[in-house]
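INFO  loader      accepted 1 record
INFO  loader      residues=403
INFO  predictor   begin
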Amino acid sequence: MRRSVPLALTVAIFALSGTLISPAQAEAGPCRPGQGPNLRGRDFTKGASLPYSLRCADLTKAKLNGVDLTQKDLTGAILRGAVLKQADLTQATLKYADLRGADLTEADLGQMHADHADLRGAIMVDAEAGQAEFPHADLTGVALTRAELTQVDFTNAKLIDADLNESTPGQIKARKADFTRAKLHEAKMGQANLRNATFKDADVSEAVFVQAELDGADFTGALVEGASFIQADDADLTGARGTPTGISLPVGPISPDTDRAQDESAQDDTAATPDTGRTGSGVPSVGLVMVVVSALGLAVTVVIWGISAQRRSRRGARLALLLRGAEEDVTRLGEEIDQLDYEFQVSGRGAVSGEQDWRHALDAYEAAKRALAVARREEELHSVAAAVQDGRNALGRLRVRSR
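INFO  predictor   done
INFO  writer      dumping tokens
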């Protein structure tokens, strides 16, 4: 006689199997800021152990001086007013974390991921933050004095009133970043991508912008005394104050009185010059004829060369414009991938890494970056556009299925 398992027992088994998940699976689940472990005011400097999961943990005013947080996932965590002096946050994830007023003096922030994080008023003096990522983060009023910021990503970040005096933000990515009223005295920003960044009323005196990309950057009211703009691309210092090196400030319009004085001087010079181009009989000399013919030939040559140069210049400018547009498209695709990854992690829709379209989007992103790196002609940018569109299509299919 066969025995059947009661329906109630079957339901209970399935219910238990759904709750017995690994710590890694639990960590990847959804959470809201503060929904994680309540660790407010706790002191972890005397050997106290941290919980396995710190996602969305409440660490308000916690003491974490010198604590090893390497590769820890602090997504959505609240660290407002926390003390993390000399803490090690190498490769840690603090996306959407709240670090307002946190003290990260001399902390190691190398390759830290802090997308969309709130760091208003944080103290990061002498911090080591090489290759850290702060895209779309709010760093208003942050203290980054003498911080090591090589290759940091500040894309679309707010650094209003930030103190970056004597810092080394070389080769940073700060497209569309806002440095309004920021202090950048002696900051080393060589080879930085500062396209469309804002430096209104900022202090960049004696800063170094050597070979930086400054297309569209706004320096209105900025103090540029002694700043170096040697080989900086498309630098426009209209409205800036002070005397920089490697570039001249735009000259204002010439006054009408000065213009009239120059015209009168030219007329006097013309009247005082004797007419020596004719012989006594009024017939032009042979030498004058030869000079005129030579001048005409030179003028024609110059005109032809000028037309050719203009065409080459237009082609170069068009290619540069297309390259910038393609680079922005690739960057936006990467940001869309990061955003969708975060949405899947915190919205309770499960992991996205196993999706075929997700892998397809990542492959398309890598293909677009490779194609952009080798593009030298307009037609070579078609493969970049195709890869970007392919990646966006894959992300679109993922979003449709997740609804």
